[in-house]
Amino acid sequence: MTDSRIADLQASVPGLRLKTDPADLEHYGRDWTRRWTPAPLAIALPGSIEEVQSVVRWAKANAVAIVPSGGRTGLSGGAVAANGELVVSLERMNQVIGFDAIDRTLTVQAGIPLQLAQEAAREHGLQYPVDFAARGSCSIGGNIATNAGGTRVVRYGNTREWIAGLKLVIGDGELLDVGRSLVKNSSGYDLRHLAIASEGTLGIIVEATLKLTDPPPPTNVMLLALPSFDALMQVFDAFRARLQLQAFEFLTDRALHHVLAHGAQAPFAETHPFYVVTEFASDEASETEALAAFEQCMEAGLVSDGVISQSDAQAAQLWRLREGITESLARYVPYKNDVSVRLSAMPAFLAETQALLGDAYPQFDVVWFGHIGDGNLHINVLKPDDMVQAEFVADCDRVTRLLAERLHAHGGSISAEHGIGLVKKPYLSSTRSEVEIALMRGIKAVLDPAGIMNPGKLFD
């Protein structure tokens, strides 16, 4: 690359690793959305907090925008660099820094993959309970930047609940150490929670102290076949009343179709419209209660069939039916909606949304799945092979506007856990008031006065 700024950056931050190969620019300049053509200036791979600070100071002085980059597994365009930005990848900053047995915390660099952080916690007889299918490739920094949820939110909550402290390099290169692992701290605003879910617009998360907890009990997994969409919340209520659920996930027959085509094993001889994967403690009392809940639902006509895992291997097979969905859909580059409503609003919202999508997308394969136990739905619309991408996206955007109106009416969110990024930016006002958005802009202006931190994401 001949851009003189690259040589200037290298001279300003001696020892900084930079990548400018076209294949690297494409790889690091996009996330899983694949909707924008990557066009970053270069890829910076700092190895320390000090290098991150130096890169940010250089970027501010030279009016170069920065796109922080973790595992780039996002689905909202939050890690896209399409306008000459400098991508700052934290992949080299991927180490465990320390473990505190008394505080039960694990301090890690932000580029560490979620799976490695989980394994490090297990080495100390504890667990970091946030979990999802992309655990091997997503990074802790990216999880924090989007307040990622995953499959066990119904039991453990979102990422936000498990961050004891973090370090953030803001727009002028200063380092903020916020939270500091204090259980109680009423000394003013908690800037840690501003950084969480900020999507890299306030700064670069470089380090995090994670809360750990006791390892989960041995669990059983049950797969339920449901005859109708209306039964979902009733089945959830029946199982929640009897069990401390670890997870409660649902998927449609179309989702199962794609996972089976991708190599998973069919769970039943017959096909059913909807399925639930639920996990709970495997002690004798819990198994008895689970079977009682199953029988109750069968008698009420809410469940058509079911299977309970008899081994870890079978549990893994059942979980694959849910966790393998995203990978099985990857070749279609689906248009995704990630929405949430309160549990009390879920029945009405489900009915309205099913009708809306049925009317709006008769020509498309629509794949539903999600974390029904915490009110989060993932809606994937698959592009026909013979349809032009721009026409497909325009048609989907039209329906997303209608979906945003339904969410607003039910007090829901257009983004439950994937962030706003570029994809959902036009619909932010369905979730946030104009006053809130103005305050968010003001906060960004304070922490990023030059406007270099992931500009254009979340809002303009």
TrEMBL record:
Question: What residues does the FAD-binding PCMH-type domain cover?
Answer: 36-215
So which domain of life are we looking at?
Bacteria
What cofactor is this protein dependent on? FAD
What processes in GO biological process is this protein linked to?
A: respiratory electron transport chain
Q: Which Pfam families match?
A: FAD-oxidase_C, FAD_binding_4
Q: Give the Gene Ontology MF terms in alphabetical order.
A: FAD binding; oxidoreductase activity
Q: Does the keyword Flavoprotein apply?
A: yes
Spell out the coiled coil positions from the record.
none
Asked if the Swiss-Prot or TrEMBL record annotates the protein with the keyword Calcium, the reply is no
- The protein in question is named FAD-binding oxidoreductase
The organism encoding this protein is Thermomonas carbonis
